[in-house]
């Protein structure tokens, strides 16, 4: 099951649009800016072309890799 990127709380169902704990809006599907492949919002890299996603850059930032 998908979890809220803000607080880590699992969504109640696939239809959930908001986190039931913190109220943050659930991110939609992400489209790769490089090749147009549909990715999960938690994917750090495109599995087709290997391009890093915005989420991947955020993760790098959080890990201090930047
Ligand atoms: Zn949340
Ligand atoms: Zn791609």
Features:
binds zinc ion; little secondary structure; two-stranded antiparallel ribbon; 66 residues; 2 domains
Structure write-up:
- This protein is mostly loops and 66 residues long.
- The protein folds into two domains: 1-28; 32-62, no CATH class.
- It contains one helix and two strands.
- The protein has one helix at 54-62, and strands spanning 30-31, 38-39.
- A two-stranded antiparallel sheet has the order 1-2.
- The radius of gyration is 13 Å and the shape is flat.
- The protein starts with 29 loop residues before the first strand and ends with a helix.
- One zinc ion is lined by residues 4, 6-7, 9, 19, 21-22, 24.
Mind describing the biggest β-sheet? 2 strands, antiparallel
How many strands appear in the DSSP assignment? 2
Number of helices: 1
- For the largest sheet, list the strands in their spatial order: 1-2
* Total count of domains: 2
Task: Name the beta content range.
Answer: 5-15%
Order of helices and strands: EEH
User: Which regions are unreliable across 5 or more consecutive residues at pLDDT < 50?
Assistant: none
Question: Helical percent range?
Answer: 10-25%
Shape: flat
Distance between the termini: 30 Å
> Cα-atom Rg, whole angstroms?
13 Å
Chain-averaged pLDDT: 89
Give me the secondary-structure category.
little secondary structure
Q: Which distinct ligands sit in these coordinates? A: zinc ion
